[in-house]
Design goal:
six-stranded antiparallel beta sheet; 328 residues; elongated; single chain; alpha+beta
């Protein structure tokens, strides 16, 4: 027997409509997945652009105190240390009369400063080393002998004793042959037998020669209108600070390049005592030999002479960025 309820029609269950909060199914063909962000690999690929190369200062460093004034300004943040070497395309703009560079050896990673210029052997000038630009590279035997036959043997022996035996600061693949901006001297190659000498230095007074180019007057084949380079280093709180200065004799003699004490942007900068003491040639002796004390410098407290006598006698007179440091 069947109940009357069995006669009712049973309809199949209809699916419930999707809830409002249920996510709609993704249609992959219309919604492609977002690609992951690009990764920066140290081995290559995307590289962060470096800021343009900018020298520390522009002017002329006439004395040790001038150089230490620039170092002090860099320590105070008034000027900036350079953090890297210039690229090949930046080198020509850097190698101009008046460029002054200061760099920290550890922070920059620069152990040996190179600029792709043919330089003479170094000569000691007070607490600095100076170089003068040559027409061509010197042969090893020429580094100890002057080319000018008018140079006497006594002068040759005196200069030879100050020759820096470090490697040349250029490479055969990248040589800067240019002179200072506006130099009308063509960049031509000269035969080795032809002796070409820069006459400008020969026309200077003996005092100007000693002050600006030392003995580098006519002893080598100097480039007409070329550059001088002056280097000095100091160790401060365990860090070596190197100073490189480029200038032309013409710009210095004419007064075109100013000293730090003449730069209004450096007004009030006085090197701290640690930067002024311990030099082989005392700052007082250096200033008295070269020129009268500058008023802004004369007002500063001089360093006592006893501080200089405390320097060991074996300490080198001057320091090149390629060799042992001057300050310890």
């Amino acid at each position: 027997m069947y109940s009357s309820f069995g006669q009712h029609t049973i309809h199949p269950r209809q699916p419930l409509p999707p809830a409002a909060n249920t996510p709609a199914p993704l249609v992959t063909e219309h919604n492609p997945p977002t690609p992951p962000p690009q990764r920066h690999h140290a081995s290559g690929g995307l590289v962060k652009a470096q800021p343009p190369f900018k020298p520390t200062w522009h002017g002329f460093l006439d004395s040790t105190k001038d150089a230490m004034t620039i170092v002090e300004a860099a320590l105070q943040g008034r000027l900036s240390h350079i953090s890297r070497r210039p690229h090949d395309k930046e080198r020509a703009d850097m190698l101009v009369s008046g460029t002054v560079l200061v760099y920290e050896e550890n922070a920059s990673g620069i152990k040996r400063w190179t600029d792709a210029v043919h330089w003479s052997p170094s000569r000691v000038m007070n607490n600095c080393l100076i170089y003068r630009q040559l027409v061509r590279a010197l042969k090893p035997e020429e580094k100890k002998a002057a080319l000018n036959p008018s140079c006497g043997g006594k002068r040759k022996r005196k200069e030879g004793g100050n020759v820096n035996q470090a490697e040349d600061e250029y490479t055969e693949n990248a040589i800067f042959e240019g002179g200072i901006p506006g130099d009308a001297t063509p960049n031509t190659d000269h035969p080795q037998s032809e002796k070409v000498y820069a006459n400008f230095a020969q026309n200077l007074t003996p005092e100007q020669q000693r002050r600006f180019c030392g003995s580098l007057v006519d002893s080598y084949e100097f480039k007409e209108g070329g550059l001088m380079k002056k280097t000095i280093s100091v160790k401060f709180k365990g860090t070596h600070h190197h100073v490189i200065s480029y200038y032309s004799l013409e710009d210095v003699v004419s007064g075109k390049l100013k000293r730090p004490c003449e730069d209004p942007n450096l007004a009030g900068i006085a090197p701290r005592e640690e930067l002024l003491r311990g030099w082989k040639v005392s700052l007082e002796d250096e200033e008295s030999k070269d020129l009268p004390l500058i008023p802004s410098y004369a007002q500063q407290t001089p360093v006592s002479r006893s501080q200089h006598h405390a320097v060991p006698a074996k300490m080198p007179q001057a320091i090149d960025p390629l060799s042992e440091q001057l300050h310890t």
